[in-house]
């Protein structure tokens, strides 16, 4: 059991790495949401015409 706790402690990430991962995740989410919104606007605008 001692090895299990040491491996869990080794897997813990430092604070700056969490910040970078969350920031990249937020940017990727915003960009993908922008693409989805752009595609949805193109579909609706073509449907109106």
Number of strands: 0
Category by helix and strand content: mainly alpha
Query: Unreliable segments (pLDDT under 50, ≥5 consecutive)?
Result: none
Portion in beta strands:
under 5%
* Sheet with most strands: none
C-alpha-based Rg, rounded: 21 Å
User: What is the string of helix and strand elements?
Assistant: HH
The gross shape turns out to be rod-shaped
N- to C-terminal separation? 67 Å
Helix content: over 70%
Round the mean pLDDT to the nearest integer and report it.
83
The figure for the number of domains is 1
Counting H and I runs of at least 4 residues, what is the number of helices?
2
What's the SSE blueprint?
Elements: H1 2-11, H2 15-48
């Amino acid at each position: 059991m001692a090895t299990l706790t040491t491996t869990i402690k080794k897997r813990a990430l430092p604070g700056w790495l969490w910040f970078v991962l969350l920031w990249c995740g937020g940017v990727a989410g915003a960009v993908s949401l922008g693409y989805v919104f752009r595609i949805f606007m193109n579909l609706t605008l073509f449907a109106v015409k």
